[in-house]
Amino acid sequence: MANWTLYHTEGCHLCEQAHELIVPILHAGDSMQLVDIMSNDELICAYQTSIPVLKSDNGQALFWPFTAQQVRQLFSQTA
Known about the structure:
Number of domains: 1
Shape: globular
Order of helices and strands: EHEHEEH
Strand content: 15-25%
CATH topology: Glutaredoxin
Largest sheet: 4 strands, mixed
Radius of gyration: 12 Å
CATH superfamily: Glutaredoxin
Strand order of the largest sheet: 2-1-3-4
Structural class: alpha+beta
Number of strands: 4
């Protein structure tokens, strides 16, 4: 079981696209937390120009734009 974080912000159409792309690919038992970067100044500094960002609990990350194939590859690396 893996834990994922999708860094996003409200009203970001790219973030919505990323979420729609990721959800059907999540493995059974995996979880994904949505974190709005506007809730934390450090997150704003880290991700303001690169959201959406999908990050695993072991630190691997995909920065937008990414494809379903790239998400599958990332998921398989952490399985």
